[in-house]
Target: DNA/pantothenate metabolism flavoprotein C-terminal domain-containing protein
Amino acid sequence: MHTEPTTFSAESYFATQPSPQHLQQDVDKVRDFVTKQAKEGRSVVLVTSGGTTVPLELNVVRFLDNFSAGTRGATSAEYFLKAGYAVIFMHRQFSLQPFSRHYSHSTNPFLDFLDIDPPEAAGAIPRISVTPSKRADLLEVLTAYKEVHARGTLHTLTFVTVNDYLWLLRAVSKEMAVLKRRAMFYLAAAVSDFFLPTQKMSEHKIQSGKGNLSIEMDQVPKILKPLVDEWTPGGYIVSFKLETDQDLLLPKARQAIERYGHQVVIGNDLHRRKFEVVFVSKKLVPTLPPGIEQTKEATQQAANSFSEYWLRINLPEHPLPDAPVKEIEEDIVQELVRRHTEWIENTP
Ligand code: 9Z3
Model:
């Protein structure tokens, strides 16, 4: 079936695509969380994490997915919490989460950490204990996890489809607008560029009898523009740009900054993302002392140039099984916290 592609603006998207069922309940909880954090004087970061799906049928059997395990988001959330931020962790259902990520089912199954001790008396229930070699690591993660829960600084939300993601992002960012400069957005989720509007979806499972399958998808509206201009003016916005062609990384990151006018794009190459990223931002036009005027050319040049900051870590080629491995997210978050703090202090 061939239908004309529709060009969706953010406005026409939300006017025509259905909102997720639990949106209002989710928003109410986010509002309570933001109010509490604002009262306690904390900065709040929205971390988005994991890939979005694009269902092909209304009774969904098949869907398109975006690559992301959720490592970047879950790991960064932990470092933001450590730095004193409150975190709204908006992630793809079943992708990695802060703290529990250390014991994910495939890489570090937690059942392998537990021992069954012999019962103390006949008929008694056997005790379960943690394997001695794993205790120190578990204690560290568990302590941080319990502290965060006691302070109430982590709030978790889930999405599955790109539609859930867009509705939630808009609603959460509007709630965060009250935080003004204390709100940070760390958009690490891998978001589909294409989607199938509900009006064009087949109700039932697409049948295979007709031979080839061709589907024409529409473009997901560029959501960063209204996020920057309308939903949360004043927030510090960091988006990620993922490429597989290293040569496209800088041009695409610069293009995003130019188009949306937000604070930072972090560019990462799919295969190098665990040890190398680049921060791209617009160069600030320097404020000159009173009485001194900058030439037109110099102002123009400064406004058109980008600052690029490469962040790299050395990863061991053959890491030892139990040796701690440096995580690049620690340095990414440290750099962002520094920039955000400076930005809060220096902007009127
Ligand atoms: C990223 O680039 C993330 O860093 C990764 C993290 C998805 C690579 P993992 O979860 O991977 O640790 O396995 N996220 C943003 C990807 C994205 O969809 N960006 C859009 C784009 O590139 C703009 S928002 O066009």
Q: What stands out?
A: The chain has one domain: 10-346. The mean pLDDT is 92. Residues 68-72, 187-188, 190-191, 239-242, 268, 273 surround 9Z3 (CB under 6 Å).
